[in-house]
Every structure is written in structure tokens, then in C-alpha cells.
Design goal:
With 395 residues, this protein is an alpha/beta fold. It folds into 2 domains: 78 residues, Roll (Urease, subunit C, domain 1); 293 residues, Metal-dependent hydrolases (TIM Barrel, Alpha-Beta Barrel). Helix content is 26%, strand content 27%. Helix 3 packs parallel to helix 4 and helix 5 packs across helix 6. The protein is globular.
Length: 395
């Protein structure tokens, strides 16, 4: 063990091999080198609480007053990262809703630069910018939701490839409507670049959805929301996704977007290993009540951000609150935690993240017994403690 080694003992550890009570982790050079159950070495105190993998948000439009679709104030990222750390998030995909293509290109460049700065910073903090989720503009206008219809476009594989060439490597997830003409070629173009394709804002029938899954779509964006509804004679994409074990269902578990019974139904049918908790949070998350915006659109904020028409426009949810919401409706804490950590990491093909196992990166969250964040570790180093950040989350 090196001078950078650390031993953590906690009364409950949600490890890949199962829950350890108590559990002991040995960390060296930022990686987990041993995980076991039992008493810790002499001099190591067993902390009360739950130690979990760091949480990963695959779909977040903004928070702390910052709208990711414009990122007009890159300095606001420090505020964003402080907020996310306080919710247990150690990695995320900033999500960009549909905007004019020049704006999309510029915002992608800004996020690429932000990710580079963060990765090269002398004191690498959390959360990690794991890439960008491009939600649109290749969506069905019939289910636009909060996406401005004037910015929606027909799928064009060459156009999409051109955008990707300008910002190589930053796009990790794309949401599109797979039933639109040209979508299949775009799906193939994304797959060739190892970009995960998710179906969303879609009017796909059951058969169209099945074909999309055969073509390589591996996720459904905020299942049930902004898509053809489930019908007993035409199950649509909802029914197809519930029946296909290759497909991960993204869920907004704020209990506003979905009834608690629907959340339970999805988890019981899909299983936790094929269900990913997402927040779909907007800039208003973590902010005092008042007016807000999403990609330049004015929002009102009550139980969730909404357009003046009443259409939901993101959420106020945080991933730690999503875990507590699931616990409140009877989902075991282990499953709730892993749907916000291990499953998103698997979607992104990141075996080094989202799990407490030998070889994994020691990005960890210590919760108290009420599942409220106490401490966050970045590669084994404490970067957040309730009541403050230590050290600051710097670029």
C-alpha cells in the first residue's frame, strides 16, 4: 500500500458482491483494492451509515440556476458541481434539449472544453463530466414536450456525423424518435462511434419500437413521459420496452412525472438491473422558488418546472431524493441505490464507475441512516462533507 492508501469501514456497504454489514474498503491510488465484511483494522472506526457507489445522472438539463443547453456562464459550473456533490452525484451527462444547430454546436464545444479543463485540473474534483447527452433535435413533434417545435429536425445521419466531427468524443448518449424517416441510419452512425442511442419524444408503435431495439437502441428516455401511451390494442414503445430485456428504462422518480404505482410496476417488470434513475432536472433545481427558464423558454415552478401551458419542463429532482422516494414506496434501498449508480455506469460502458468492487474507482458516497448525503469521496479523497466542501470543487 502506498502513502495514498485509505481504509474505510462503514456499518453497511452496498458492494457489488452484496451488502456487507459492516464492510471494510481498502483504497490505494484512487482504486478499490479490497472489499470485505468484518471488523476493520485497529485504529479504524466503523462509521454509522450506508456507503454506496457514487451516483451518476444520465439526464440533467441544469441545476443551481445554470441551464446546460446554453451554458452562457461557464463560471456557473463551480456552483453546479457544489450542488451536485451535495446530492451524491459523482458523474453526470449534461443534457442539451433541442436548440438551433449553431447553438448546439457552440454549446457542445463549451462542454467539451469544460470537461477537458476539469480532467486536467491539478486537483481533480468531482463530479466528473462523463460526456454529453444530446436530447434532440431528431424528435417527433407530436411528443415534443418542452422542446421548441421550431427547433426539431428530421434525422440526418450526415448532419449528425458532421456535428460529432466538430466535437469528437464528447457526445455519449443521444435521444431520438426511432420511427422518423432517416432514424435508422442515424442510429447506425451513432453506434459506430460507440454512442448510446435512446428512444424518446416518440410516437413509435410496438413494431417500430421492436425494430429500433433490433437496430441497436438500448435505452428509453424518461419512460411513459413524452411518448405514445400504452394501449391494450397498441402497446407502443412503452409495451415494447417493458418486454425487451436488452433495453434500459430511464425513470424520473419525482412522483410527479409518474404515479408511484407506475414506478413500482416498471421496476418489478424490468428489474433494477434494467432501470436507470434520472432526474431530468432543470436550472430551477436547488434554487429558491421563482421564475426560471429552459433553453430560453420561460418557466413557472411549483411541484416541477412547467411551460406557461402547464407542460412539464424537467424536474426539481435530485438523485438522492429519487432514492428516498423509491424507498418510500417500498423499493429496497440496495436496488434504489444501484439504479442510480451501477445501472447508469453500465449504460455508459464504464466498469470503473458505479460499483464497489476490486479495481473500481473509489468514487463513493456515505449516506446517513436516512439516506442523506454525509460525505463524498473522489478516488478515495473526501471532496464533500455535509456543511461544506473540502477541498473546493475547482476547475
Amino acid at each position: 500500500m502506498s502513502a495514498d492508501s485509505l481504509t474505510i469501514a462503514v456499518s453497511r456497504v452496498i458492494a457489488e458482491q452484496g451488502d456487507l454489514t459492516p464492510g471494510v474498503l481498502e483504497i490505494d491510488r484512487g482504486r478499490i483494492v479490497r472489499v470485505r465484511q468484518g471488523r476493520p483494522p485497529r485504529g479504524v472506526h466503523v462509521q454509522a451509515g450506508v456507503l454506496a457507489p457514487g451516483l451518476i445522472d444520465l439526464q440533467i438539463n441544469g441545476c443551481a440556476g445554470v441551464d446546460f443547453a446554453t451554458l452562457g456562464d461557464p463560471a456557473g459550473l463551480d456552483r453546479v458541481h457544489r450542488f451536485l456533490l451535495g446530492t451524491g452525484v459523482t458523474g453526470y451527462l449534461p443534457t442539451l434539449i433541442s436548440t438551433p444547430l449553431p447553438q448546439l454546436r457552440e454549446t457542445l464545444r463549451r462542454w467539451q472544453e469544460a470537461a477537458r479543463r476539469r480532467e486536467s485540473a491539478p486537483a481533480k474534483g468531482l463530479p466528473r463530466i462523463l460526456g454529453v447527452h444530446v436530447e434532440g433535435p431528431y424528435l417527433n413533434p407530436a411528443f415534443a414536450g418542452a422542446h421548441p417545435k421550431q427547433h426539431l429536425r428530421s434525422p440526418d445521419a450526415a448532419e449528425f456525423a458532421g456535428i460529432l466531427d466538430e466535437v469528437p468524443g464528447i457526445v455519449k448518449l443521444v435521444t431520438l424518435a426511432p420511427e422518423l424517416p432517416g432514424a435508422e441510419a442515424l442510429i447506425e452512425a451513432a453506434r459506430r462511434r460507440r454512442i448510446v442511442v435512446s428512444a424518446g419524444h416518440t410516437n413509435a408503435t410496438f413494431e417500430q419500437a421492436r425494430q429500433a431495439f433490433r437496430s441497436g437502441v438500448r435505452m428509453v428516455t424518461h419512460l411513459f413521459n413524452a411518448m405514445r401511451p400504452l394501449h391494450h390494442r397498441e402497446p407502443g414503445i412503452v409495451g415494447a420496452s417493458l418486454l425487451d430485456d436488452r433495453v434500459v428504462a430511464g425513470l424520473i422518480a419525482d412522483l410527479v412525472h409518474l404515479h408511484p404505482a407506475v414506478v413500482r410496476m416498471v421496476i418489478e417488470r424490468k428489474g433494477w438491473k434494467r432501470t436507470a434513475l434520472v432526474t431530468d432536472a432543470a436550472a430551477a433545481a436547488g434554487q429558491p422558488a421563482g421564475p426560471s427558464s429552459l433553453a430560453g423558454q420561460a418557466l413557472t415552478v411549483s411541484d416541477a418546472p412547467r411551460l406557461p401551458s402547464g407542460t412539464l419542463a424537467g424536474s426539481l429532482l435530485t438523485l438522492d431524493q429519487a432514492i428516498r422516494n423509491l424507498m418510500a414506496i417500498g423499493v429496497p434501498v440496495r436496488e434504489a441505490v444501484l439504479m442510480a449508480s451501477a445501472v447508469p455506469a453500465a449504460v455508459l460502458r464504464r466498469p470503473d464507475l458505479g460499483r464497489i468492487a476490486v479495481g473500481g474507482r473509489a468514487d463513493l458516497v456515505l449516506f446517513d441512516r436516512s439516506m442523506r448525503v454525509r460525505t463524498v469521496y473522489a478516488s478515495g479523497t473526501p471532496v464533500f462533507t455535509r456543511g461544506g466542501i473540502a477541498p473546493p470543487a475547482t476547475e
